[in-house]
Amino acid sequence: MVILRAYRPDDLDALYRICLETGDAGRDATPLHNDPLLLGHIYSAPYGALEPNNVFVAEDEDGVAGYVVGTHDSVRFSQKLEAEWWPQLRQHYANARGMTDMDRGRIATIMQPHGSPAELVEPYPAHIHMNLLPRLRGQRIGTKLLDMWIDQARSAGVRGIHLGASATNEGGIAFWSRSGFNRLPVGGGAVWFGITL
Ligand SMILES: CC(C)(COP(=O)(O)OP(=O)(O)OC[C@H]1O[C@@H](n2cnc3c(N)ncnc32)[C@H](O)[C@@H]1OP(=O)(O)O)[C@@H](O)C(=O)NCCC(=O)NCCS
Hints:
Layout: E1 3-6, H1 12-21, H2 38-43, H3 45-50, E2 56-60, E3 63-71, H4 74-84, H5 86-93, H6 101-111, H7 118-121, E4 126-132, H8 141-155, E5 160-166, H9 170-178, E6 182-184, E7 190-196
Parallel strand pairs: 4-5
Antiparallel strand pairs: 1-2, 2-3, 3-4, 5-7, 6-7
The structure holds coenzyme A.
The site of coenzyme A has 19 residues, from strand 4, helix 8 and helix 9.
């Protein structure tokens, strides 16, 4: 049985683990990284740490195996990251050794985060990331987690949500397209989607 519930602080390790195990365009990114925390530092953990009310998880008998994380206000979240999240990581990774190319790319992001394209943030101020381990996929759990997140955002007066998917993540792209998100004509390495609430 799978339970969908609000985030708790002791879910933080699961946010890191799931992010890594789905971080290669939906596939396990463990072989690509010597540092197993780097992906989570960017794409999952800061939401649990800084915006825990905007995180929902899916848990089965073997533990937490999926999440949706996000923020209602991408600009304010970037400011929070600059104040409360990036500084200690920048210090930690300043002299990092023994890293893979992927690790070095993630460290570059921590040193100089790119954020979302500016033209998306005005019409779609919120953004999300959703990741499920393979054992939970294809059972509409992603759809239910997304509905929970959207219901809460709508109640809070959020007017739109954007997200970026890796161009090679065909499953993710199919999911967002079928979940009411519009593919947006924005350049860069990712495929961008938005939905108006
Ligand atoms: C993408 C993901 C969140 C979808 O969650 P899910 O619970 O597996 O999806 P659902 O069962 O709710 O599917 C909803 C719809 O999306 C479609 N869909 C979901 N995954 C799909 C896939 N891999 N290929 C094609 N269609 C897919 C379903 O067929 C379904 O369509 P329908 O309404 O016509 O039946 C989940 O598979 C996942 O976490 N994947 C790995 C990480 C990832 O890629 N995250 C997104 C990063 S942008």
